[in-house]
Amino acid sequence: MTELLIAALAGLLLGHLLDLAFVRFYTSEDLATPLHHCPACRSPFRARFASPLTGYVMSLGRCPDCRAGLPVRSVILPLGGAALFTTSVAVFDNFGPGIVGGVFATVFLTLTLTDFERRLLPNRIVYPSIVLAIALSWVWPHVSVPEVLAGGLAGLALGVSLLIVSLPFGKGAFGIGDVKMIALIGFVVGPASLLVGVFVGSVVGGLIAATLIVARLKSRRDYMPHGPYLALGAVIALFWGPELWDIYTG
Ligand SMILES: [Zn+2]
What we know:
Layout: H1 2-21, H2 52-58, H3 73-92, H4 95-118, H5 123-135, H6 145-166, H7 176-189, H8 191-214, H9 227-249
Helix pairs in contact: 1-3, 1-4, 2-3, 3-4, 4-9, 5-7, 6-7, 7-8, 7-9, 8-9
């Protein structure tokens, strides 16, 4: 019980930090520039936004200076981080791997948000995460270090293949960012769970895209981000990959 509580607090903290740094992930802005809480008026940072979650709630989701709506991610990232860390520790039933799993699940949540908000899977998140995944490759109970490295290389190969196959469908069908993200997933979960994750992500993404097209909410030519579905598949693979792989292989 104490472990779950610590995990929730760790996830809340990481979600907050990622939200505070969020805008710097996809601009060339220096990481050390002053923080501002409102993307609309870029008014100076106020003390209450030191915690983006309580800042958002206390301001009722609006900037106190210009009344523009504040980004909902300030709520999603801290609460999502807390939920993912808690789930991770519960699923791994082991505090160390559980916390590391929570970190990567929260990274995937962050990539979902950057892809929805800016259609980007920023290098500033993906590259350090790959380095971290390799550095922590010894932590996982079900995946060995060689498997993690093989998973990353398999992810790279799979991503490049998907990129080549998607070329006839035009720009935006599948991007370099998606390739890097699949490599990252491989470096986190290993080759077997990577396939589980990409499969789950493709099925869910395909179903949602088909539904949107049938409902005429989107056309075939509209941009459809892959990142959020890959991220969903990655989190499922991270938490339940070995079990799903066992079911698949009988
Ligand atoms: Zn404002």
